[in-house]
Amino acid sequence: MSAVAGDVNGDGRNEVIAWTAGGRLYGWDTVGKALWPVKAFSGESITNCVLADVDDNKKWEIIAGTDKGRIYIWDALTLEPVPGWEKPQELGEGSVKISLADMDRDGKPEIIGSFISMKGGKYAGNGAVHVLKSDGAVFSGWPRELPTTWSDAPMVIADVDGDNRPELLCGTRDGAIHLWNSQGEYMEGYPKNINGKNPLIAGPALGDADGDEIMDAVVAYAGSYGNKAFLIKFTGVCEKKALLWPRDTYNNTNNRCLPGSRK
Ligand SMILES: [Ca+2]
Ligand SMILES: [Ca+2]
Ligand SMILES: [Ca+2]
Ligand SMILES: [Ca+2]
Question: How far is the CA of 180 from the centre of ligand 2 (A)?
Fold first, then answer.
C-alpha cells in the first residue's frame, strides 16, 4: 500500500489517500473515518497518486496514473471527477506515472505522465512523455515519443537554466539522460549517454551537490565493475522556486503532495 497526505477538508489536519496494488483507493480523515466509499478498480491498479489543486479552485484533487495507461482526476473530498475528466485520459496500452509542475506559470499545475508502452502485459520497448493541461487539453509541444526506450521513474522537473521556465529531465532504460524545455524541444546536447549503455539505478536527483549554489543533477549507474555516479552541472541557481518536482516528500515511495499550488 502507498499513500499521500494533505488537508483535504480544511480542518487543519491531514487526510490520507491510500491505494493498493490490488486496485483499491481509500481516503481517511485523522480518526480513520472514510471520506468516501472505497473505490475498487477492476483489472486496473494505480501506479502513483498526487494530491494537488490543479484547477486553482482552492480545493484538492487526486491525480492518479494507472497500469492501464489512464490518468484520472477526482475531487479529493467527494471522489467525483472534475470538469474535463468525466472520463479518464487514455494514453494507450501501458502504464503511466504522474508528476506535476506549472509549465506555463498560470497558477495551475500541468499533469506530466511518464508512459511505458505494454503489449499483452509485456514491455513493448518504447514509451512517451505526455503533458496535459488541468482541463484535459494537450499542452503545446507534447507528447514526446521515446521510440526504443522508456523511463521507469516519474519525470523530474526544474528550471535548470534560470530562465523561469521549467525543464523536464529523465533517464531511460538505454542509459540516456533526456532534457526537454517546456515546449518539448530537446535542450542542446540531449539526449546523451554519459556512461555507455549502462542502466541507471534510479531517476536523476536534482539539487546543489557541489555547494556553488548552481543547480546540478546526480545520476547513478549500475555497472559490472561497480556503480558509478555522475554530476551534471547546469547554469540556473538552485533555489526552492526552481525545484518543481519532486517536492514536499510525504513518504518514501515517491508519491507527493503539492501544497505549494494552493494560495
Ligand atoms: Ca483535514
Ligand atoms: Ca482544485
Ligand atoms: Ca499551468
Ligand atoms: Ca528553464
Answer: 27
Look up residue 144 and give its amino acid.
Answer: R
Give 10-residue mean pLDDT values along the chain (263 residues): 89 92 95 96 94 92 97 97 96 96 94 97 96 96 97 93 96 96 97 91 91 95 89 96 76 48 38
Instruction: Quote the pTM value.
Output: 0.91
> Count of H helices and E strands in the chain?
0, 20
CB 111 within 8 A of CB 98: yes
Q: Give the amino acid at 123.
A: Y
Ligand nearest to the CA of 6: 1
The set of cell numbers assigned to 164 is 523561469
d(CA 221, CA 51): 31
Measured CA to CA, the distance from residue 226 to residue 172 in angstroms comes to 20
User: How remote is the CA of residue 124 from the centroid of ligand 4, in Å?
Assistant: 32
